[in-house]
Amino acid sequence: MKFDSLVNYLLSESRKYIDWDLNYGKSFKLVHTPEGKQSSETKWTPDLISIVTPENGDAWSEWIEVDADTLLKWKDKWNNIQKSLGDHKYNQIIRSSKTNITEQFIKDIPATFK
After folding, report:
1. Which of 94, 112, 74 is nearest to 14 (CA)?
2. What is the average pLDDT across 35-53?
3. Cα–Cα distance, 36 to 34 (Å, whole number)
4. Phi, psi (5° rounding) for residue 85?
5. From start to end of 48-109, where are the E strands?
């Protein structure tokens, strides 16, 4: 099986469940959004949080990660949060997880990919 074919399959099919425990800190993480770095549609507040992936460069490596209490609140709501992710962010997480592909994705792969 070609790895690129697998990634293309994951990106083209309906959304897959993104397991928090398998992906947090590897494929995505939650950070405080610095003032002036928010999207143009968003008003900045000190409590503004962003979901970033390794594709987000400086945001991934330099922005401050949220505290443990905030992290647990997001984790508890992750099932609903991931359903509302925009396509761009969802696809970023999937691409970032390509080195972290696990049983969560493999269980849905058609026999032609195995």
Report:
1. 94
2. 82
3. 6
4. -65, 140
5. 49-52
- Residue 107 corresponds to which amino acid? K
32 DSSP β-pair partners: 49
Give alpha helix (H) positions in 1-114: 3-12, 20-23, 58-62, 68-83, 87-96, 103-106
What amino acid occupies position 61?
Answer: S
Gap between the Cα atoms of 86 and 91, Å rounded? 9
Cα separation, 59 vs 50, in Å, equals: 9
CA angle 40, 88, 91 (to 5 degrees): 155
Cα–Cα distance for residue pair 97/112, rounded to 1 Å: 21
pLDDT of residue 61: 94
Whole-angstrom distance, CA of residue 98 vs CA of residue 76: 24
Encode pLDDT of 47-79 as tens digits.
889 999 999 999 999 999 999 999 999 999 999
Tell me 13's DSSP state.
Answer: S
Give the span between the Cα atoms of 71 and 99, in whole angstroms. Answer: 23
Amino acid at 58: D
CB-CB contact of 1 with 113 (8 Å): yes
